[in-house]
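Table S7 (text form). Paired inputs.
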Amino acid sequence: MLILIYYFCRVCSMECIMQHNGYSMRIVNRVIIITGSLLFFYFDNCFSQAGTETARDSIVIKNTLSEVIVSAYDQNKKITRQPAAIFYLSPVVINRFNPANIVSAVNTIPGVQMEQRSPQSYRLNIRGSALVSPFGVRNVKIYYNGIPLTDPGGGTYLNELSPDDIYSFTVIKGPGASLYGAGTGGVVLMDGPLFSHDSLENSAGMSMEAGSDDLQRLAANITWGNDQQKNQLRYSGMSSRGYREQTAAHSKMLGYEAVFKKGDAQQFSITAHYTDLYYQIPGALTLAEYKSDPRAARPAAGNLPSAEENQTAVFQKNLLLGMNEQYRFNDHLQGNLIIYGAYSDIINPTIFNYEFRKEPHFGGRFTLNENRRFGNTLASFWVGGEWQRGYFNVTDHRNMLGAAGNMKTDDNVNNSLSLAFAQADFTFPAGWDITGGAGFHHASVDFTTLFPAPVKHFSVTYDKAISPRIAISKELGGNRIAYLNISSGYSPPAVSQLLPSASVINTNLHPETGVDYELGSRGLLLDQKLYYDIDAFIFNLTKSIATRRDSSGQDYFVNAGGTRQHGVEAFLSYPLILHHKRSLNFWMSGSWFDFRYRNYEVTGKDYSNNKLPGTSPFTFVSGLDFNLDKMLAAHVTYTYKDQIPLNDANDVFASSYNLLDLRIDYHANISKRFNLAILGGINNLLNEKYSLGDDINVTGGRYYNAAPRINFYLSLVIKYLM
């Protein structure tokens, strides 16, 4: 299987060399071939090495991977035993970057790109999933403490969580529709502090941060309880004027988690979270505007006012309440029931419209799991379902220089998603493991146009779809695994695509479907010190949905025929120095993608075989982490991103860029109960001028959103153990 991975890399690389004449791409492909060869050499010579359970964390050496249990696909297995392209972002990794956001931490994951166009506006791209995402998060199913954070309309407000709410971050790359519902881009499983680590000590903590562009942030938390019940209350507030004009932001977030245990058989948990945030939207610039003044907001053009004149922004309030009941009936059978309710209230003045969205929704998820042993074979079975229902109202008015004018449209949108799933896992002697499962989907959307008159009703029901998955893995000994994973994805259009900013209901969009083929391996080599994670994939998507933006800045969407997405992703980590008083760890993360359209024609133009816009063909991130006597730490991160095509014609590209970030930590134990830490960092040390979160397929050439040049932050963290 490992030989197949190597030849997969080589074939993809040779194809790329034939199609690209650029020097940088030749270098990239040579690196891939050499890396594949070296890994094959190591595999071939290390299979016979006996290993102990001393696995290392994915980037920093402190935590051992042998202790990390990941619940992806409901299989509570060590990360080194998961038979899929899964990446676990530990708290140690999350905490090596700026405490004010997790963007840089997420971007260490190979194949994943998180972008921040203004202080509270995020876009998440997993293997090109942002093709349908001009902003926000689309085509990725996200859960928080097991609760669906993605609403039944297909949207996710990732900004409703603060970095303090996220203790761990697990990404399943590729379709997860066999168990997690609609989506072809991937799945993200996030857990709060208590859900990841319910043995937290009783404590109170506070952190204060200041930084460039008038960044100010205050966070506080208190944890109390005992072995049978634990509670945590968190607050965070942030304000910033932003790097560009019209990018000011402020937010207030309050979160509560509780875990109650009744012996070993029952656990009940509560998640409650409230968000109140505001952030301005600067709008994208043309290339000439970007070169002239990258800090500027979108200027007036023709009859359209500027972003500042129209006061483009988002006023956002989110409320989430969920309950999770886990019950062990006996040694073989256990169940899990989740019930949640959520409400989002969005006010969004744009260049063209002044939009009001009210999005109440609720739902639940249940799972039954049975474990049995048949001779030398361990078998596990899962059955369950998920259901979500939303009652949305979307009202658009004219934007009269930052005030809501005459009403243009008023629509009620009732949407429903349902999923039934089954999964079985068999662990055989000699280290073989086979997992098979399937999800059965149903989706419907009902539109009622209240204005303009007369009242109209539209209903869209998508055919029931089946999304199967099969995974085969083999333990290689010494904490290593090789796997083959084949999964199918299904994703109906999101409400934001059926009813985009153009305010015209598009009932002609069809669901996306796709099949993903993966070969991968992860584990430890070289006396259990070198951690590696490598996978190669082929993903074919049909009826893919692509975004368009007209000259007025309004979005609309079309089915883009199909896509062919090939790629290789790799991660390596190795301790250069490992001593009880000091350590130096090196890690690197990279991805190479060849994403292209197939059978794609729009308005008489054939874009077949063109690159998909919005995704870099090559990304490389590496870092050094130095720790001295648990008091002083330094973290250096380097990022390179290749140029990105910005439209279907591939005649406009965002430039490649290099980033260098530095963070230094000092920790002091004032007493047995009182701890103090001072954290300071500098981002973009090279003072690189680059665009992050580019708009794609835009009429008028407004592609560019300038990212901050060199900037800094300083944070004081205080913790008291009660």
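Next pair, protein 2 of 2.
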Amino acid sequence: MEKLENDILESRLKKVSQELERLGIYSKRSVLEKDKVSFAFVVYVLQRYLDNYDVDEIIDNITEGGLDNAIDILHIDNDASSDEIYINVFQCKYKTEKNLKSTIGENDIDLFLRKIKSIIIDKDTSNITMNPYLTKQLNLLWDITKVTEVNNIHLNLYLATNGADINEQEKKTLIQFKQENSIIQDIKVFFNYEFLIGHKEVPVEDIHIPIDKNYIQMNNGINTCIVSFSAYDIAKLYEKVGDAILEKNVRKLIKSKINQDIYNSLVADPKMFWYKNNGLSIVCERFEVKTISGRKEIEIKRPYIVNGGQTTKTIYNHYLDNKNDEDKLIPLYEANIIARIYQTTISEQITDIVQGTNTQNKITMYDLKSANVNLKKIKDFFLENNVSLLINRDVEEKKLPDAINSDTLLQLYCSLYKGIPHKAKISISKLIEDYYDDVYNTPNIHMDLLNTFKIFQIIKKKNKENPEIQHLRHSSFSLLYLMGMLHPEIKNSYSEDKIIMAYDESLAALNKIVEKQKNENNNFSNHNFFKSEKSTEIINDLYKK
């Protein structure tokens, strides 16, 4: 990394460090003064990877510190809307200004891989001493994967540094390690400006893309054009613009088997690709169809692919892997893909297009719902009460000390007021699909939402006082639901004393439920129990009056 880039990074790390100080994390983790910047770098790397999550949302994933066994981050991506589980493990190496040209280093890479093999892949922790943060995450991992098919567990290994890229021999070592361990899906090194700092925005200058001479143009409120691109030209477009072109795509590159199906279709039968693929949806500031030297092309200003990210990235990956082998690029020349191009910068229209063209895969509240007018009013109401309600992941905004993300707030509200804590835990994408309009478009719901936030703030504080109770990492939604059941008055007016009383009673009740379930089921898993409807049914049978 160059000095200018590193100076920008340093200013970012300073803000993260201030937040870590404010939350008392440095003190709780016993981070020495000399190690604070490198610890902040680890937190910042995970924030960048997850798209701007708050520190207190992700801190449990940070395992960095003494006895971390070269594992600085252990993040588990599990959504019950899919059977797939993704384990994201990072080793981060922060470089001081005088060492920006140095790499992670062969010894550190070897140690990282050896620890991954022993601890994660072989599950052999005998004679290995670990800090409590890594131990806690590993216990969570074993709990989640206890009843999961091996083929559905995927391991991603990431090395992150503000220094230089690793050398060719080290790259070969990573490739060989991946080949030797089938559980590994991806190995990457994050060192570049785009990942660590860059704002993903398509360049201002017009982009020219050849199109088939047959196209359809219409304007029913939005200037629209339906065209056909070659897969090769899509690959070149992505090469020119990079990940920025997917920035408004709510699905981006989904981690599923669908991409392999797209790849097989592209390579095996490229001439049928146009008929078998759903195509792309693109929004832009402006477009114009032109004829240049007898050839049709479309001139586009700031295009964003809002549907078709999987297709685009799969096409580009094939191009990237074979760009020096013309024979292997033939399928890209032969394959064509349909594209619908919409000229609009109106956020509500973009949201409607995104919503209409992205219905079959996981969609987040931030990407899909951020243009909702009522939600923006609720955001303003929260701000008046000194709370930041965050509805866009990728937008840098000044956050108040008290903050909550709108998808988390939806989960909490549905647990407390709608009585479906298991659904809140199972899948945020399904919860959005089923309850978003019902909740965020309800008039005069803002007081209940704010009350939900305030109650959960107390729950988080109390949970930290009970680190030995393992189910709390899985049962917070059920705990909130039970609190509202045993003490319904907390749903009507805020009283810290009553909320604490409700917490203590509800936690004692959940402890008994969990202990009973463990005794009755040898394969009991906190994770699986609290995402099952059975957990809510048991609470209802025991305590609902």
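The CA atoms of residues 336 and 461 lie 55 Å apart.
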